[in-house]
Backbone:
């Protein structure tokens, strides 16, 4: 490939320019990570560091540092004397990550549901008191202009009567409304973020920092998988699964909550195996 063709292949990257938001390495890492997760840099593709430097308008050091960090996330491979390439997806890694998530998140919702079944107080930690604590306030977290989207009514199973609803359930219900809106709008990026947020709300409510860190570490190499499976059908099934989890929490049914979470995460593996069979070039270990 000619130098001109190589440079053209990175035109999707926006030059970083001047910014006070974070260091250069962090910004380069974020840009490249999003390009990999969004498949603008495809699994198995070679990475030209010089072309990236020129396109982003940065020196070689932050690009090299960013790629080293992405290697630790399993997103790139740095091959001595051969260069750097985007990692192919390893089903074995995905299975292990989902195993960890299923074990921890299913137990998390069981504990949360047990707390609701007894005295409506989350046992291990404290329920979060609103999205404002996480920097979003009460408005639509996905609105580009800060405006609220019209919210669809929630299914009856997901609501609690009266004005004394638990803060955790309020946050989950609010998130579900936004999921419905993103799914109906076909906004894949926003739906992906809201899906992640749903699970983070539960982990924040649990209050165990090391459990949350373990889940987030396991989830790091799953982001590409979630983008691969993104579709209107998958969004609808994901929302339905989330509604079952919230309904079980609202009812204080620990067994149902844990089972709903396990089925939700198992579904991802089932879908991925089917996808991998049709797209083997994206995977390392078929």
Residues:
């Amino acid at each position: 490939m000619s130098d001109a063709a190589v440079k053209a292949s990175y035109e999707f990257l926006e030059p970083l320019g001047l910014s006070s938001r974070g260091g250069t390495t962090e910004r380069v890492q974020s840009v490249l990570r999003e390009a990999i997760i969004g498949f603008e840099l495809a699994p198995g593709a070679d990475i030209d560091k010089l072309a990236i430097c020129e396109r982003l308008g940065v020196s070689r050091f932050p690009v090299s540092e960013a790629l080293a960090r992405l290697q630790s996330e399993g997103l790139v491979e740095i091959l001595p004397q051969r260069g750097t390439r985007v990692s192919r997806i390893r089903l074995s890694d995905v299975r292990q990550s989902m195993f960890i998530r299923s074990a921890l998140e299913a137990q998390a919702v069981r504990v949360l549901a047990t707390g609701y079944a007894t005295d409506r107080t989350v046992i291990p930690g404290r329920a979060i008191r609103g999205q404002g604590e996480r920097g979003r306030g009460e408005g639509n977290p996905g609105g580009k202009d800060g405006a609220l989207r019209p919210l669809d009514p929630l299914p009856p199973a997901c609501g609690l009567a009266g004005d004394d609803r638990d803060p955790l359930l309020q946050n989950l219900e609010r998130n579900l409304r936004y999921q419905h809106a993103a799914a109906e709008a076909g906004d894949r990026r926003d739906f992906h973020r809201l899906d992640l947020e749903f699970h983070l709300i539960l982990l924040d409510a649990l209050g165990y920092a090391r459990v949350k860190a373990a889940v987030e570490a396991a989830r790091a190499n799953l982001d590409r998988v979630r983008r691969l499976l993104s579709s209107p059908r998958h969004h609808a099934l994901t929302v339905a699964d989330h509604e079952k989890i919230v309904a079980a929490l609202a009812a204080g049914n620990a067994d149902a909550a844990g089972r709903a979470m396990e089925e939700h995460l198992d579904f991802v593996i089932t879908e991925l195996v089917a996808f991998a069979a049709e797209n083997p070039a994206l995977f390392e270990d078929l």
